[in-house]
C-alpha cells in the first residue's frame, strides 16, 4: 500500500534527516503560520522540527544549530528525549511543547514561545522545585476543567517499580501569562488520579462523557488498565472494571488510540500489548444504558508483537479506518502491520482484514514512533516512522503511490480550535453522510510516545457529507451544514464562544 518517499523529501537537505536515535513524534504548528510541523524527539542527538516547503516539496529542519534562531532551544542536544506532546498550557492560543525524558538526570523540558523564541519554562526559578521531581515514561494532554488550558499527564515508573503519576497544569493564582510568567503545579491528588501506575500507553478524550468533557485512559504495562471518567468538576473516577476494559490479565501496554470503528458515534479504543494480544474494544451499552466495552480483535489482529505505536486513520480515503501497528525489531524480525477495519452496514461487528503494507513493512527496523499528517494538503495522509534505541537510523516517510492518490475518492479535513485559538485537543468531531456517520477525536497523545496531527481526517470514498457536529471539552456544541464545495478541502471550526 505505502510507497517510501523519504529520499524525495530530503533530497536537497539530507542533513535534516540525520542518522541518530529518535523516539517520539508530535505534530503541531511550531512557527504559528497555520501549517503543521513534525517534531522528532532525539533520544541521542538533537530534536528536530521538520517543516514542509511546498514550493520545493522538501522537509526542512527549523531547529538549526544557530543560537540566534527562535527554535534553537528546541534542539536540546543531549536531552535524552523519548516522548513529545504539544498543547496550550497557558491559554494564550499557542501550543507549548513538552519533551519527556525518562531520567531526572537530563530532566523534562516545557517550551513556551516568549521573548521572540522558545524558552524552557521548567527552567524558570518558580518551576525548578517541581522540575527536579518530574520523570515519566509517556505523556498526553487533557483539558480537565474545560477552560482551553491543558494539563500534562505523565504515567510514570522507574526501574520496574510502580510510581505515582504527575498531572501538571498552570497555577492561575501565581501566573502572569501576559508577561510570560507561567507557574506550574502538580494536581494529580486534587484530580483523584494518583493511582500507582506502570503504564506507557495513555490518551484522553470524551470516551464516556456525553457532554464532551475529557476522560483519561491508561493502557497499563503491569496490572489493570485505568479509565478515569471526568466527574465534571475537574476530578475523575476510575470505571475501567465496571466498563469491561480493565484487561487485568494482560500487560505490556503501549500504543493506544481513540476512534469510532463501527459508526455508532461512541469512541472505541484500540491498543497494543508489547508481546501480548492486541485489542480493539468497541464501546456499546448494557440493558440499562451503562457503557460497556467488548474486544472484537480477531486472532490474526491480536497476534502478539513487539508493538510500540498504534495509529488508526483512513489512509486511502475509502471511508473505512485502517490500523497501523509500528513494531520494534529486537529479537529477530518484527514487521509493521496494517489492518482494514471495515464498517458493517447491518449492525454486525466490523470486518478486520490484514492489508499489504508495502514499503512500510520494515521488518528489521527498531521502530520507536509513528505519526500521521497531511504534509502537502492533497488530502492523503503521510506516515512518519522514527527509529532508535540501540541502532541509529534516519526517519522513514511513506505515502500512497501516485496512482492511488489520483483516485476519485473524496475527503474532508476538520481543524477545531479552542476559544483561545489553539487546537482543541480532545474535541469530538462527527461527520454525517448519506451512508452513515464517522466520528473522530482530536488527538491529545496517542502514546506510546507519539501525538498525531490535531485534525479530524475523514475519507469519504464516494459518499456525500451532510453536516458536521463538534463537541468541545468545555461542553460547547456546534452543528455546521456541509456543502458540496467543502469536499476535498480543510474546514476550520472556531469555538462558538
Automatic annotation (TrEMBL):
Residue ranges of every copy of the ASPIC/UnbV domain listed in the record: 424-481
Pfam family, one: FG-GAP_3
Record's signal peptide: none
InterPro entries noted in UniProt: Crtac1, FG-GAP, UnbV_ASPIC
Top-level taxon: Eukaryota
PANTHER family: CARTILAGE ACIDIC PROTEIN 1
Protein name listed in UniProt: Cartilage acidic protein 1-like
Source organism of the structure: Homarus americanus (American lobster)
Gene: Crtac1-L
